[in-house]
């Protein structure tokens, strides 16, 4: 008979382990903090009734996000491999059904799909950051018509491809250098810079913007604007912003040293992620509301049109614009690393291939797939063959509304019901009541919440 709680066969992944709890926190926070915090969070908050939305979002982070995040780290550290091979090993050990391999396969699929559009949008931030840098040193002229610059940029596939390519090359160069020299070095270097840039932006926005208007937009509860849609959007946002459901956190967990306590560590990551989202929101709207002629747009326009228009006329706007778009670019880069790592790690393990070669190959595939998103904004704008959406619209919908929640649901169920209690309790260093609380959340509460989101998505799409 196999014992589910047999001693761990491996105490380290072949890719290495994070130097410390701190480097894991920086890397995982880097994964969590991304376009979801700086661009999506502010505008969905505004749309769904300010603090009413934030309350539901915080509750979702606690009841849905944290238990699933703990489950991902626990499974990853127990398996010590890429999500797919980790799942193979855990399925063998628990003699459970191979259907659970879906967790591993969907992590690969989501990774490719998300990476393919994330790199394109991240490329936009790079273009804006470089453009503002050029203006700052007097190389480029200032912009007179922000809206026109934006439309011209989006309608030029050549330009979009140029910045997409740059972003993929940077990302894969970091990944190719491996865990220690690549991921760990890059995130420990970039995350403190990101926090500093965010702080500078906040201070500037408080001095030059209209913080009172921003605070009332973000925090005045309007329960009538929330509705069922708002509640579900808050749950979905909690999930996306914590990078859950696609093995990103699982693979980072596979590199976590033994002995690091998971619950408090995961708590710090979720807290930092939430703080960044709220600070970014306050700063953004404070700057925008200082200009009554500007309407906060939703969607990509919020950053690239509304905010850019504000920077054009504000004192030091060029420098702050540069700072801001570098900030978003760095946030996107540290997220993208975690989106491709599960796939790269898997190919390296499966084919015993060199990381450099795998990184180049994965980079090329992601880049090719990304062309679909590039053309969704120009040549293929009217090609709505993907359930009535552009290619980009379809990918965005499929990953955020279906694949990630479904992945998270399976992860919660597998960790909660299939894995032996002792193994998870040991991984989470929880016992008694505390463990029971996690178990109830992972077995019942989180799955019920996620299922509600999935079912609703299904019917509202029909
Ligand atoms: N959490 C990232 C963000 O907020 C996105 C992400 C999703 C990263 C899934 C990894 C995995 O932008």
Structural class designation: mainly alpha
What is the CATH domain class?
Mainly Alpha
Helix share, percent: over 70%
Strand tally is: 0
Question: How many structural units, i.e. domains?
Answer: 1
3D structure, described in words:
The protein is an all-alpha fold and 462 residues long. It has one domain (21-461): Amino acid/polyamine transporter I (Up-down Bundle). 78% of the residues lie in helices and 0% in strands. It has 18 helices and no strands. The longest helix is centred in the first third of the chain and has 35 residues, at 102-136. The model has no long low-confidence stretch (mean pLDDT 93). It binds phenylalanine (PHE). Residues 31-32, 34-37, 114, 240-241, 243, 246, 248, 335, 338-339 line the site of phenylalanine (PHE).
Tags for this model:
462 residues; mainly alpha; Amino acid/polyamine transporter I; 78% helix; binds phenylalanine
Furnish the topology, listing elements before pairings.
Elements lengths: L20 H12 L2 H13 L3 H29 L3 H12 L7 H35 L9 H9 L2 H20 L1 H31 L2 H9 L3 H19 L6 H7 L7 H28 L11 H13 L3 H35 L3 H22 L14 H28 L2 H8 L3 H30 L1
Helix pairs in contact: 1-8, 1-11, 1-12, 1-14, 2-10, 2-12, 3-4, 3-10, 3-11, 3-12, 3-16, 3-17, 3-18, 4-5, 5-7, 5-14, 5-15, 5-16, 7-8, 7-14, 7-15, 8-12, 8-14, 9-12, 10-18, 11-14, 13-14, 14-15, 16-18
The structure holds phenylalanine.
The site of phenylalanine has 15 residues, from helix 1, helix 2, helix 10 and helix 14.
């Amino acid at each position: 008979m196999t014992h589910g709680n047999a001693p761990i066969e491996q105490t380290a992944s072949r890719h290495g382990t994070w130097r410390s709890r701190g480097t894991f926190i920086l890397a995982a926070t880097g994964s969590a903090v991304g376009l979801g915090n700086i661009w999506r969070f502010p505008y969905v908050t505004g749309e769904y009734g300010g603090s009413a939305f934030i309350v539901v979002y915080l509750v979702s982070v606690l009841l849905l996000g944290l238990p699933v995040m703990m489950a991902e780290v626990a499974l990853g550290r127990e398996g010590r491999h890429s999500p797919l091979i980790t799942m193979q090993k855990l399925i063998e050990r628990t003699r459970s059904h191979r259907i659970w391999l879906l967790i591993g396969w969907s992590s690969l699929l989501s990774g490719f799909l998300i990476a393919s559009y994330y790199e394109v949008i991240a490329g936009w931030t790079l273009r804006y950051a470089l453009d503002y840098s050029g203006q700052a040193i007097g190389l480029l002229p200032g912009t007179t018509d922000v809206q026109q610059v934006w439309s011209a940029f989006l309608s030029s596939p050549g330009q979009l491809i140029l910045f997409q390519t740059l972003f993929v090359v940077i990302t894969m160069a970091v990944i190719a250098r491996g865990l220690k020299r690549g991921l760990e070095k890059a995130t420990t270097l970039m995350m403190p810079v990101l926090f500093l840039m965010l702080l500078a932006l906040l201070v500037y926005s408080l001095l030059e913007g209209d913080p009172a208007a921003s605070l009332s937009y973000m925090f005045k509860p309007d329960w009538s604007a929330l509705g069922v849609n708002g509640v579900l959007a808050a749950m979905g946002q909690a999930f996306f912003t914590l990078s859950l459901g696609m093995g990103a956190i699982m693979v980072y967990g596979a590199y976590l040293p033994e002995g690091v306590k998971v619950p408090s560590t995961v708590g710090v990551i979720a807290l930092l992620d939430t703080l960044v989202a709220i600070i970014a929101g306050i700063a953004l709207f404070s700057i925008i509301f200082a200009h009554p002629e500007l309407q906060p747009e939703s969607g990509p326009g919020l950053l690239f049109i509304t905010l850019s228009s504000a920077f054009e006329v504000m004192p030091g706007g060029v420098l702050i614009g540069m700072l801001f778009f570098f900030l978003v670019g760095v946030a996107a880069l540290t997220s993208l690393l975690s989106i491709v790592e599960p796939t790269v790690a898997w190919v390296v393990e499966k084919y015993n291939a060199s990381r450099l070669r795998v990184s180049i190959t994965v980079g090329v595939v992601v880049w090719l797939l990304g062309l679909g998103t590039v053309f969704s904004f120009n040549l293929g704008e009217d090609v709505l063959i993907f359930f009535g959406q552009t290619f980009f619209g379809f990918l965005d919908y499929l990953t955020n509304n279906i694949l990630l929640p479904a992945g998270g649901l399976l992860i919660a169920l597998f960790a909660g019901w299939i894995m032996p209690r002792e193994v998870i309790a040991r991984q989470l260093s929880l016992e008694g009541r505390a463990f029971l609380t996690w178990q109830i959340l992972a077995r019942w509460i989180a799955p019920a919440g996620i299922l509600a989101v999935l079912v609703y998505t299904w019917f509202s799409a029909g």
